[in-house]
Write a structure and sequence with these properties.
five-stranded mixed sheet; about 20% strand
Length: about 180
């Protein structure tokens, strides 16, 4: 059965969080219990981006708002330094593309990718990036994505727990320490 993607609505948020857990599990990350802290943060994260951000677009495939979903994905506009070819510095980024386990292989992911790409193109963005899992790579290659020119790199730092961990010279220049006039 063909389900054309539609823009996500706030009533879809429980399903978006559920599908995020499906994606995490597929990437080998244990999403934890239903009351895991990240899920509550994710609800607010989706609510802000679905209802309040014109530079973010979330598509879903499946039922009406509030009903079970088969697939989802998001696109947002990212902002980079201008260059001769990409004069305004804007790029598109696709993320959170996931199809529920029982609905894979039916074209839902490809329709989501095509819809997100069309949205970005409609916003004048013709440089689109993503990070692909091994499961998603064939979908993206079929949609025309190629391996990036520059390799992705990651840096994980240790969070600082308290203000005393912040070096004194930096702490002196934070807004809460600014003199009040």
């Amino acid at each position: 059965m063909h389900h054309s993607p539609r823009p996500a609505a706030s009533d879809d948020i429980p399903e978006l969080v559920r599908l995020r857990a499906v994606a995490l599990a597929a990437l080998g990350v244990d999403p934890g219990p239903l009351d895991a802290a990240w899920r509550d943060v994710a609800r607010g994260w989706f609510l802000e981006r679905i209802d309040e951000r014109p530079d973010v677009h979330c598509l879903v495939a499946g039922g009406a708002p509030g009903e079970p979903l088969l697939a989802t994905g998001m696109a947002w506009i990212t902002y980079h330094l201008p260059s001769p070819r990409w004069t305004d510095g804007r790029r598109g980024y696709l993320d959170g593309i996931v199809t529920d386990e029982g609905a894979r292989g039916q074209g839902h992911g490809r329709r989501i990718v095509d819809g997100l790409t069309a949205w970005l193109n409609g916003n004048g963005i013709h440089y689109i990036q993503l990070h692909a899992s091994s499961d998603g790579e064939p979908v993206y290659k079929a949609a025309g994505f190629v391996t990036g020119r520059y390799p992705g790199m990651d840096l994980f730092t240790t969070p600082r727990d308290t203000a005393r961990d912040i070096p004194q010279d930096i702490r002196q220049h934070t807004p809460q320490d600014a003199p009040h006039s």
